[in-house]
Amino acid sequence: MIAEPSGDWNVFQQIFVEHWDGFKRVYPRYDQRYYDGLVDKMLGCGNPEKMGYSAYRCLHCGQGKHRVSMSCTSSLCLRCAKVYVDTWVSQVSKMLHEGVIYRHIVLTVPAMLRTTFYHNAHVLLSAFMRCGVRCLDDFFSRVSGKPLKGGSIVVIQTHGRNGQDNPHLHIIATSGGWDQQAKQWVHLDYLPYAMLRKKWQWHLLTMLRQTLKNKEINRLVDACYTRYRQGFVTNVHQGDVPARYQSLARYLAKYVVSPPISLRRIDRYDGQRVTYHYRSHKSERVERETVEVYTFIGRMIQHVLPKGFKRVRYYGVQATKTFEKIKGLIREALAKVKGLVKGAIKIIAPMTSRQRYQQSTGRDPLRCPHCQHEMGVWRIWHPIYGVIHDELEAVRRGKYASQAPRADPPGRLGRTLWPASGGVSLSLFGLR
Ligand SMILES: [Zn+2]
Ligand SMILES: [Zn+2]
After folding, report:
1. Which among 243, 279, 310 is positioned nearest to 104, based on CA atoms?
2. What is the Å distance from ligand 2's center to 334 Cα?
3. Which residue of 190, 286, 345, 402 is most buried, as measured by CB atoms within 10 A?
4. Statement: residue 42 has pLDDT above 60
5. What are φ and ψ of residue 405, in 5° steps?
6. Could you tell me whether strands 312-316 and 286-292 are parallel, antiparallel, or unpaired per DSSP bridges?
7. pLDDT value at position 79?
């Protein structure tokens, strides 16, 4: 995997080099090996000697060379964010039912409850996601008047555009669902938003009360009912999402997987204070903010989800098991209903590191600049596992012996030594 070319990237690294230790002293909650590990990885990102690399060489003329550093994949790393987004998009788009209309629904938490979320993140985050799904199931069933099995892809986001705490759920939900009895896909065109707001309020507050079970939360829940009489903020993005956008997943990625503060948004760092900007959803304008460096680090790190936590989850007809079972049925049912099948979802294959490189530099990294043949993997080195692949060693051990008849004179070795173009492709993903 190739990370994005650096740039202002090192400002971000520099901030962590200079202040991470100090930050942990002030906020001991983050003084854990897990967080140290993420910071370390992020600091080493892009450095092949630290992160490991795969080296390619032209197996035809032996001159062309290319080395690719492994990316750190730390959730804190802004440099790997694009790789992460691409992978994410391809994963999610594989999980969409072709021809089904989806809606993008955002379920928010009112300001009054954000501190509670922050302090109880470990018990609340999963429950929060499930509760969003329960709310939609309840809502769709009520609207249609019959039990429907809808599906949702839920992504949890804990920060707002400026990096401040603002937990919310982005849900891509089928606008309707599978009617098991009628063996029919039911599409709901009209969604009464006022009802959704109320339902969301009830589901969220009930979940909080049942999960936290203390006096403080009871008091807050009561206050919320008094203060927000119209329910909680929910947003249903207008229009048939996939019809308007080439790819729903790509569209969604913009909202949900971008890191809290993307790199190009850091304008200034003087050692103590960081100035950055972001586009505000509220004012639709670019807002600029200057904060103390610890506040900045805090905004970045507090959005790292607990170890092993799954940010994207699939429910209902989107759940992996159900998906395969029901895919054919839905397609068949939809084929009978004309007009509904518009804007079929485009499935995007993940870009390989090679394609990414080619896209950003306009040059195929694996084509030998000397003889134009394709290069092959020469050596793969990993900081923990050491040399994983050594082509020269393989050759010595007789990897290509079968292609080179024993009777051949030694002079012909040059021709039989190298494998045909195409090289050897090895996946490095399992090695993290
Ligand atoms: Zn060559
Ligand atoms: Zn990285």
Report:
1. 243
2. 43
3. 345
4. yes
5. -55, 140
6. unpaired
7. 72
